[in-house]
Amino acid sequence: MSSRTRRFDRAEPRLDHDASLQAGLVVATHGRHCIVETPERTRLICHPRGKKSEVVVGDRVRWRTTGDEGVIEQIEPRRNLFFRQDEWRSKSFAANLDQLLVWIAVEPVFSEMQLTRALIAADAAGIPATIVLNKIDLPGADAARQRLAPYRAMGLAVLECSLRGTPHDTQALLLPRLHARASLVLGPSGAGKSTLINTLAPHARAEVGAISEALNSGRHTTTTTQWYWLDGAEGEAGTALIDSPGFQEFGLHHIPVADLARHMPDLAHYIGQCRFHNCTHLHEPGCAVRSAADAGAISAHRLKLYADLHAELSQPRW
Length: 318
Fold this sequence. Notes:
alpha/beta, CATH 2.40.50.140, Ribonucleotide Reductase Protein R1, domain 1, 3 domains, 6-stranded mixed sheet, 5-stranded mixed beta barrel, 13 strands, globular
């Protein structure tokens, strides 16, 4: 199985380990099976120890050989973990990330609520985020730009591209931002994430096919997270793109409702200026956030998104 393993020096310091255990990087998961990449640039199937697997793509692990496969004995301390939390369960995407690329498109029209949820989750995990708007060659690009204006205003990076029209320009735009980083690509189905992966990682199809064959999982669809190395002829280590499945829902139940505004940069700028220290920014007099919205410094739609999320996270959980 082909791979492009690189160094493993960006994880937190390791715990004390059994000398018989080997180091590895989790590059794919499928149920209770995962693919671990070794420092020798080989990949093999591993099984987590115990009944419940907590291993995710991006984990640095310690494993031991059992025949032609391996058993994961330890997970190294994580720098971060990007996940969503619905009312009853959580879904982890990847660990030890350097950045999140929120990949959206002019068509299909993106959901600002889903975009906001992803950005809040990234901020809560301490992961920098960049928004990439694809398909700007289509009618409706100007309307999409206007919808993204508040995100530019709050200091978020917003890039524009057209993979179908100018793939080389897209490479020139993205590769410097991806350089020497592990970047998770997150976005709805139909936005062009698969085209991005195939453009930047031409070996991706072969790797997916080899993994599917090894796991006996049949025809591959993007239902799991997958790690790809993008390092080119220059040989610089550490540039990786992590593909993730499309999603319909993105729960934020791991975010305390009192902290919600702190993870929305345009609102967070005014926290501490309200009359009441426990202001919810919904109805209290002397609210600096609502005053900023009235003055046009915060978009009315963004304040509405906050109010809707606040109501959702305030619901009692039975």
